[in-house]
């Protein structure tokens, strides 16, 4: 009589149990960072360092994204590629495996191209480049961006020699625009400024905590291309629009 093979469910449970034990066995590490001398980029990401130990774990990023108004499933799907990309780049050589946590001290090593230039190579804020965002792209109002202007800005900043950097600005700007723009679809200058030092995240968390609302599920606004969308849906809509335009350009 042949021995029965273990079911896939049993095998899956075994794998999960082993992973759980592995996680429990990780040694807790910290990464010291000089809070008083943090760069704008370090301040930007430190919002997601929920226990303020200098290291952002995937679960902390998920918690932070939920805190600013997104549902758990979206936060999980958003955090996964972020940590897969930034974890290995920012982890020191002696960091415990797997290198999925993001080390704030080294966050500048994870900077991508096709951006606004408002942060320099070390993650420091560049005021002149920030002002250029509005002098070049804010056509309806001098102190705010519409959804179409955000889209035009992303396209204008694309580095043709670095197509791998095109996706990140779509996700970043699409999500924050969907969360922080007003009910008329305007993304105000002070909110845009808050992206770079993370203060917009703090503001969003406070607003969501006081209203107990979940923006990515419930907020609906009228974007300036006349499409009513929630924050999460706008991110996907913008991504699809720019992807289709890129295909169209390549065929011309």
UniProtKB/TrEMBL annotation:
Family: Belongs to the caleosin family.
Signal peptide: 1-31
The species this protein was found in: Oryza glumipatula
Residue span, EF-hand domain: 36-71
Name of the protein in question: EF-hand domain-containing protein
Keywords: Signal
A single MF term (Gene Ontology): monooxygenase activity
Keyword flag Signal: yes
């Amino acid at each position: 009589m042949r021995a029965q093979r273990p079911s896939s469910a049993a095998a899956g449970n075994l794998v999960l149990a082993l992973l759980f034990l592995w996680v429990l066995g990780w040694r807790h590490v910290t990464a010291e960072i000089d809070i008083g001398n943090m760069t704008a980029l370090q301040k930007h990401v430190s919002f997601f360092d929920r226990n303020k130990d200098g290291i952002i774990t995937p679960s902390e990023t998920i918690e932070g994204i939920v805190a600013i108004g997104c549902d758990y499933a979206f936060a999980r799907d958003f955090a996964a590629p972020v940590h897969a990309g930034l974890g290995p780049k920012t982890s020191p050589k002696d960091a415990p495996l797997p290198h999925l946590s993001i080390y704030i001290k080294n966050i500048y090593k994870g900077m991508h191209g096709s951006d606004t230039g408002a942060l320099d190579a070390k993650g420091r804020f560049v005021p002149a480049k920030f002002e250029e965002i509005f002098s070049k792209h804010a056509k309806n109002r001098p102190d705010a961006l519409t959804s179409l202007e955000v889209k035009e800005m992303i396209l204008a900043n694309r580095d043709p020699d670095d197509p791998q950097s095109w996706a990140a600005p779509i996700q970043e700007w699409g999500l924050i625009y969907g969360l922080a723009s007003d009910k008329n679809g305007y993304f105000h200058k002070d909110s845009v400024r808050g992206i770079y030092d993370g203060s917009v995240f703090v503001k969003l968390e406070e607003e969501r905590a006081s209203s107990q609302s979940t923006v990515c599920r419930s907020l609906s606004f009228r974007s300036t291309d006349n499409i009513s969308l929630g924050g999460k849906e706008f991110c996907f809509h913008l991504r699809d629009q720019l992807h289709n335009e890129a295909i169209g350009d390549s065929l011309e």
